[in-house]
Specification:
By secondary structure, the protein is α+β, with helices and mostly antiparallel strands. 36% of the residues lie in helices and 35% in strands.
Length: 159
């Protein structure tokens, strides 16, 4: 499993559907997931910390969890079949973990409200994510500059 976070929302250029882009914590892999317009709005509101006059569905879910003394401990995007991602909410309720099947977009919208971590299976990260070559090149340039700046005196050991 790899922990990821919401990087941004956008529009898929081919389908014109909203897309949420998850980024791994190292900032090297990006996972785009097509979502619905309502879920995109719910995610954007949570990212901006915007209050709404009446609770939306994900706000209601969070309130229900709170009133039942249940905690969303994490969400897991665990599978993909026929271009459809599968996810689950992992709740702690009465000292026991419960897993609930849900769409990734709903899981993400709720995780943002509950400050719960987002995890993606290694299989999905390796097969479906996009690797950021630019970040790797920048890191390599920083490393080269560091190596070039080293002097023999940097390697002296104290006696």
């Amino acid at each position: 499993m790899r922990q990821m976070k919401v990087d941004k929302l956008g529009i898929d250029l081919l389908t014109h559907d909203p897309v949420v882009i998850l980024k791994d914590l190292e900032g090297r892999r990006y996972l785009p997931i097509l979502i619905g317009a309502f879920e995109a709005t719910a995610i954007q509101l949570a990212l901006e910390g915007q209050a709404v006059p009446r609770p939306l569905s994900h706000d209601l879910m969070k309130s229900m969890l709170d009133s039942l003394n249940a905690k969303l401990t994490k969400i897991v995007i665990h599978d993909i079949r026929d271009s459809t991602f599968f996810a689950k909410l992992v709740l702690e309720c009465n000292g026991e973990d419960q897993e609930i099947d849900a769409r990734p977009s709903d899981c993400i919208a709720l995780a943002l409200r509950a400050n719960a971590p987002i995890f993606v299976s290694d299989k999905i990260v390796l097969e479906e994510s996009v690797y950021d070559k630019k970040a790797e090149e920048e890191e390599m340039q920083r490393f080269k500059k560091y190596i070039e700046s080293l002097k023999p005196s940097d390697f002296k050991t104290e006696s």
